[in-house]
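User: Okay, second chain of the day. Same drill as before: sequence in, structure tokens out.
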Amino acid sequence: MRSFLPDKAFFIGNEIPDQHGRYTIVEHKGSGVNGHVFRAHSEELRHDIAVKIIPRQNLKEGWKDEFQKANILRSRMVVKFFSVAEWRDPNNEIDCVILLSDFVSGRTLREYIKQNKNIIIVDFIVRFLKETLDLFNEMDDRGFQHGDLHPGNILVEDQSTSILAPQYIFRVTDFGVTSAAGIEKIKDDYENLAFILKDLLENVDYQNSNPRERFTFNILNDHFLAKHLVEADTTRDPYARRPKKLFERLDEVDREFQEIQATATHKELIDPFEYLSCEQLGESHNLLKVLYSDRFLGLSDIERRDNLVLTGPRGCGKSTVFKSLSLRHRLIVDEDSPKEIDYIGIYYRCDDLYFAFPRYQLPIRQEAYDVPLHFVTATLLIEILESIENWSSRYFKSEFEEKEEIASKSIWDILGLTKPEEPGIDSFRSLSARLIKERNRAATKHRFISDLQQKIGYYFGPDVLNKICVKLVEIFSFLNERPFFFFIDDYSTPKITLELQQNLNRLFMQRSSTSFFKLSTESPVSYARSDIDKKAYVERREFTLLNLGLVYIHAELKEKLQFIEDVFDRRLNAIREYPASSLEELIGTYSGPKYNEIARQIRRRSRIETWGKEALCSLCSGDIHHIIDLVRLMVSSSGGPEKLVEIKSMPKILPKNQTKAVREQAGNFLKGLRILPNGPHLVEVVTAFGIVANAYLRLKDSKNEKGKPPWQAHRIEPYEQVILSDDAQKIYDELLRYSVFIEDVRGKSRRGKVVPRLYLRRLLIPHFGLTFSMRDSIELEVDEIETLLLDPKQFERKHQLQKGFVIDPDQPFLPGIGIEDI
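Assistant: Same drill. Structure tokens below.
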């Protein structure tokens, strides 16, 4: 569209047509893809206005409606338009639309960051976030998006002459321009805000900040940037896509800091149910040590010497276990004795990759393919060099000092970089310093990769990292029999795009005796099984797939209990004088009646209570995040820790309060699911299945058991291999992505076919009036699964077994007054 932009020089000095006050364009302020921006001045009125000039070819039909959105919003942050005009000049082939708004005297946020490099204060960032979230809240209410939020269209207006106003206020321009121009890919506002926050935080002088500023910085970096703003899964994070909650969270930061300062006994944990995600721990390795359980289910599989793709429900602890196995972490927490180190763990979280290569698409020029590989290779090598140097300084100092120069020369040769002629260059620290520059070079080059005038140059290929690992093992005896394990965390689409994964898989799917790659991804459908060379990677040959959801579903109760009790006992004992020191003391132990008896009670419409540590294990599909939050809800519904102190009997939380919290947590999950882009339909699908499964339990008997117990199924079992239409497959993938269902690809149907079984997320089982029995299934033909996915109401009508059957709206498993309120 830039080709339609007229010469900006044409407008300078010309008077704007058909405007009172005789405004003359006096200054060009900037240009974008769609138009020019000027400042115009009226000598008659002694007044300046901003003039946006857009060629008519760059506007879609109905463009006026998009620009009107700015004026509909009440937020003072939005720069509103007060007039729309036309500028036609056939002689100069000018046919443009003119949008007039008040001129904001100030700098763009991009200019402000550049002029205040490394001296931006934290309070400035907090105020910017609060004002932006206030705008987001109104946009959310009206269903609007800006669509192209970036530092260039945010203005910083200096109000230092005002007694009442803060020093700076922020204004947003170009509202509606992207959608008015008909650009198909509207950029996500929260994602763009995360990029802006990253730029701001990188320019804070952290070392010279006071304790309160550092505390706030860590919250912004470890919570907002690492989690809340980039998280699109509202079932995973209660703050995601909720501007009011994010605003309130910002308001809590000062209070939290004051509480920490006032509590002399406090170290790092205030409440046993905080820090539900590893990202929020930041670099607090000691707290990570306190919270990490080495009874983690699946740990032995993760530590095998093979490439691994680790998946499972969000919040199942993938990040926690990966970070805890890194050599850097073990060094910090003094768990790095050579007797305990079987491999050199290198942890890398893909947030860094995401910010460097956002919305990555494979470039047109093949010579540019290695740019992301260069960035990742340099990053991982920096961590390798620093970890080896730090570890060897404790245990192998003399050997390291003897061989560092030899190893460094070999690495320089493999890297293929021009080595500076200066003293001390053949050292790990000099290599790291150069590799930091190489990281930055790759990230910068990517921004200009589409410019065909840019030369590409040399970048590391997929073989460099492994060659260096082999060489290090050859040189240092203490690395013999200790391979490198690369823990690549959150390697998930859409954040790490399919094309970026296919590019990097040339490295991550390599097989070697000295290096193994462990990739964590949020679901079985969020990673690529091929590379850009069209090579397909086959499970059990190039990699092992480990789904933690299935590990938890199939694990014995004793094994699950050991892990979950350890997780809670660590948290409860990390708080001094907390009213309970064990999970059993808090929620008790209750095995209850057998599944068949529970099913009969459901048939009789008896109230079923779900309580005790055994029930907590049964509710877990690996989603330990939700289980911790569930117990927090139980404590809260019982009056909080203050009330629990007064209770001397066990369990401290009454069964009825536990049961209520279980229902509420399931309802919260579905509410979070509902506000996702296709969430309402996903809720209809799982609700239809839940109603049908409940109908089977109430109205159908199991065939293979004596005594004719009720049919108890929370699992879908296809008769044949599932091949779906594109629309149905998309819904199927979304259900897996958000772990509404957990897929077991190694199932076998009654017809002897290898089919994927789908297990309902166990947190939802009591919600739909089902039992945890795994004996029965809902067996479906492929066309019936298609119907469930595309038309869940029709599926529900067809499979209810009895005409007019509906779930009793008063039955205790559903929140509110009925299923329609979910």
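Confidence is low (pLDDT under 50) at residues 803-822.

User: Thanks, on to the next one.
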